[in-house]
What we know:
single chain, four-stranded antiparallel sheet
Amino acid sequence: QVQLVESGGGLVQAGGSLRLSCAxxxxxxxxxxxxxxxxxxxxxxxxxxxxxxxxGSTNYADLVKGRFTIxxxxxxxxxxxxxxxxxxxxxxxxxxxxxxxxxxxGNYWGQGTQVTVSS
Length: 119
């Protein structure tokens, strides 16, 4: 089992920055590729960014490419999402997701953290 707890959300003006963190417990995150998703009101949950288990490869949704940066610290069992140049359309609940590198490790979601960007 893996427990994921996101933090760092809040209210920010357009153009501002936030840094989200996802702290894991229960199992080492080095067994997992890590992802961030978001869900805006009335919309489906969508992929934001991912980083492989060793941190060697990252991937971003086109909407956030060049503005968001995902990183991980396996020693601290944490994943972060640096969000710059925020736009009102980035407003959503942001979720951390652990994807096991093999099926038996399972997949896990955090409870989410609210990000609100005002215009």
